[in-house]
Amino acid sequence: MILLGSTGSIGVNALNIARQFDLNVDVLVAGNSIALLNEQIKEFKPKTVVVANKSSIQDVVHDNVLYGEEGILEAINESQSETVVNALVGYVGLKPTLESIRLGKKVALANKESLVVGGKFVDTSNITPIDSEHFGLWYLLSDKKVDKMIITASGGSFRDTPLDMLQNVTVEQALNHPNWSMGKKITIDSATMTNKLFELLEAKWLFDVDKLDAIIETKSIIHALIDFKDGSTTAHFAHADMKLPIAYALLGRVEDQILKPVDLISVGSLEFKTIESSRYPIWEIKDDILRKPHLGAVINAANEVAIAQFFENKISYLEITKITLGAFEKFYDFNPTSIDDVFEIDREVRSFVSK
């Protein structure tokens, strides 16, 4: 495989599956976690390594090291591997997805932004999702007619925080997720519920279903549900561990045990909650953006800039969503006719938000 984002949580889990099933790793792409990358190089012996910055090359223990976006695209082009695991975080993952598809490679996709931003111009026929929610939806599909698809949310770091305290929460508090430990950006997106909005957009592009929704399930045991036309509902239960969807994406068919089954007696009970816009203001535009999913390009660009400003303590937590909604209103009439239009609106929105 070509593994983009090897030192993040998805990448580490992908390498766990590679180790378990003796899969070849042809390319490793990482950001700035060079010490972990060097450990991965020593074990998996890739032909090519790519890092984020040119200055990091001297610290990488490998003879063939590229850097930056151009390095990623070059590595994808030169590799004979037919599978690309895209676990990059953010907009940077879009061009590698497009290039992989252009080359006819299979994409195991964990990079949300590829579909959120460019879904209108991305051929999903060669994409296998490795988000637990979309994997759950895929796992539940049968020959019965689907009425509605539902994904679940944990509720994020502030699901139980009094609303009047949200204005003053810190970066450290926002990164303290109640159910799991993931990257910094996705943890903030989980807290604001922007992550779930993105996942609904992904589901729309992946499954071509009009009726989509999300609910909070506080224990993160159920990841997806499907309402069928006959009135029945099925749910996908699994422990919150990305190795299961990754294994299916890489192997196609899985007959070995990847996770321990959920013990419902130990779980005891489940709690479901509505996603309220009073706590998660981004939810105000949920129905609107599902009708105009190409506006995901606007939401993503504004959100990425706003989160960076939050990490730099330039804005408050609540201003992340306020800024994103402001950009959504400003660029509401955006309607791309090509992927170049998407690249251009990304630049425009980032400039607008930065100013």
Order of helices and strands: EHEHEEHEHEHEHEHHHEEEHHEHHHH
- Find the count of extended strands (DSSP E, 2+ residues): 12
* Main sheet: strand order: 4-3-2-1-5-6-7
In round numbers, the mean pLDDT is: 95
Give a description of the structure.
This protein is an alpha/beta fold and 355 residues long. It has two domains: 2-130, NAD(P)-binding Rossmann-like Domain (Rossmann fold, 3-Layer(aba) Sandwich), CATH 3.40.50.720; 148-238 and 277-354, no CATH class. Helix content is 43%, strand content 15%. It has a seven-stranded parallel sheet with strand order 4-3-2-1-5-6-7, sandwiched between helices. A five-stranded mixed sheet has the order 11-10-8-9-12, covered by helices on one side. Strand 2, helix 2 (34-44) and strand 3 (48-51) form a beta-alpha-beta unit. The chain is globular. The model has no long low-confidence stretch (mean pLDDT 95).
